[in-house]
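User: For a benchmark we're assembling, each entry needs the component sequences followed by a predicted structure for the full assembly. Here are entry 17's components. Please fill in the structure.
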Amino acid sequence: MNTNIIEIADLVKRYEMGHEEVFALRNVSLTLGKNEYVAIMGPSGSGKSTLMNMLGCLDTPTSGTYFFNGANVSEMDDDDLAAIRNKEIGFVFQTFNLLPRATALQNVELPLVYAGLKSEERRKRAIEAITRVGLADRMDHRPNELSGGQRQRVAIARALVTAPSIILADEPTGNLDSKTGQDIMRLFGDLWRGGNTVILVTHEEDVARHAHRIIRLRDGLIESDEINPNATSV
Amino acid sequence: MPRLSEVQESFRIAVTSLRVNLMRSILTTAGVVVGVVLVVLMGWTIGGLDAVWEKTISIIGKDMIYIDKWNWAGGGNWRMMEARKDITLEQAEALSMRMESAEETIPITRKWGGSVSVGNTSLRCSIMGTTTAYGSTSAGTTEEGRFFNEVEEREAEKVVVVGYNIKKNLFPDESPIGKYLKIAGVPYRIVGVVEKRGFLFMDFIDNQVFIPLYAFRSSFGFFDRSFSVGLKAGSERMLDIVRDEAVGHMRSIRNVPPADPDDFSINEMKAFDQQAKNIRLGIWVVGMGLTILAFIVGSIGIMNIMYVSVTERTKEIGIRKAIGARRSSILSQFLIESAMLCVAGALIAFPIAQVIVGSAQYLAVHVFEQDWASVVSPLVPFDLLGIAVGVSILVGLLAGLFPAIKASGLDPVEALRSE
Ligand SMILES: Nc1ncnc2c1ncn2[C@@H]1O[C@H](COP(=O)(O)OP(=O)(O)OP(=O)(O)O)[C@@H](O)[C@H]1O
Ligand SMILES: [Mg+2]
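Assistant: Structure for entry 17:
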């Protein structure tokens, strides 16, 4: 019985810059189970975002294997990857990445558009998700009419509207003040308690201490991978 | 294949982007607008020409066959026709005796380059000598008075039926019936005015007067004149039968040996169709050339603006891909947007074309008083709207293809990194 969502082995990501080779990931192996809450830490340039993009099927490795829910991602074509991103993965970015011309609700509906859902069904689920992040009263606002914290809530609602297997967040509090950051972290805690698998990248120990497992990267390698006995989100 | 929800989303995006970049969109569609205006104008012109032509030949008589020494449409060998023996009145009368399928067999003789005068004004026109039966053809239908009758014909009375232009020029404000005009110095009493029949390039047809055959003889003589014979078939269906019968009789009347070709020509209104076709073709070729040019220029503009749009929206494309848009989703998004740009162009073009067409027709009829223009529609033909929109969609899809392929192939990670 295998409950691992993610199994990666010997993952390498190499960039060629002219004659030079840059290794964003040198050799990373990792397994992640259901309903884990993981923080990925490490200095700037250590490969955190690269790893997240791999886990999120946005990027493909130079070598190594990646199994997602038992399926071999390395062998998938563009459309399969898009389908996984759409159904199984919820992305939250540091810079929110909302569509500026769409309302909060339309932004949240968008993954369901690409899932092919009918309009009423989309609306119903998007309203549910946006209510869960506490923004029911801001549904019709555009991103530029919302505060940073509110924008990130919309982004989180968009990430969870498809009920994905994992939620990936790359420095979700990086652009927020600490008070707003704590609100957002509380939201991730709620999601985890609700049964979600959460992986987040952060620079801040304060943020990382919410997680139950902390993985530290350095120069494209896993430096340490430890259980956090003092996890604050319980 | 993109899903229905994605197509709906694409339309929403396209409409938003058209609205946000309104001025840019309108300028971009200029080439398409010009192209569509040209298509519409061309279609309208050809349609108008057809209407004028149809009107002309139907008034002169689609059911008429004229046997003549000459081929009217100018086909055939001129010298060979010149060498033919004249068709005499006796031959025309012999044909008249034998014909069974034609409703009327009408001998006709003409003096081209004649003139008529009233007081000191004289007018150049052709003078036709014929029989009462000519009055029963559509070419001889009177709008005022009547055609001359059998008694007047038999007695060679000096009566005349005038063409529309003769009446218009010599008796502009009064009825000419009962008045006199002089032909070759002899006064003729006007008994009727023939309906307007000539349109556009057939205008000369209204510069005619009709007098009884024997009155013609006393004024101009029959010497050295070749007659025509008009055969009224009664309907277009009868044309073949009447033609075959007439050819048979004429060959025997003129003793044409069985192996020889006819020594006379059969003229029908259909013969002029070829000329009308050539004019149509000319307009079509010129119009199509200009249209294609405009569409090419237009599609280059659209392609350019779509590339700009892809670049501007790289980040957006990255976001969409990150949350599950497939290649085909992005492809269709940009294709729909560029097709919509073109359709918008077509929709802008239509009212412009309508204004041009409407004012052209109004000016022709009311300011320049061109009678022929009244049979031309002042409205742009609506089936052209469908064609124009269809062509625009096609142009939009073609112009948007490469930018859309570029957008759909973007790497999501790189696209997300762009600002
Ligand atoms: N497209 C690329 N081309 C070349 N090198 C790249 C590219 N993307 C990333 N890298 C390199 O890979 C390494 C890891 O980058 P990555 O973005 O994963 O770091 P990070 O840990 O997320 O850093 P930060 O904390 O600053 O976000 C860096 O040295 C970076 O320069
Ligand atoms: Mg990073």
